[in-house]
Amino acid sequence: MPTCRCSCSTPPNDLTAGRTPRWTGRLTTRAKKRPTRKNTLIADPTRYIHYLGPTTCGATHDYQMLKNEVDVNLGLLDLFAWLADLGYLGLVRDYDVAPESLPHRKPRRSKKTPATALTDTQRAENHAHARRRVKVEHAISGAKRLGCVTQVYRNKSLAFNDRVMALACGIWNWHLTKKKKTI
Question: Is 97's pLDDT higher than 90?
Answer without folding.
Answer: no
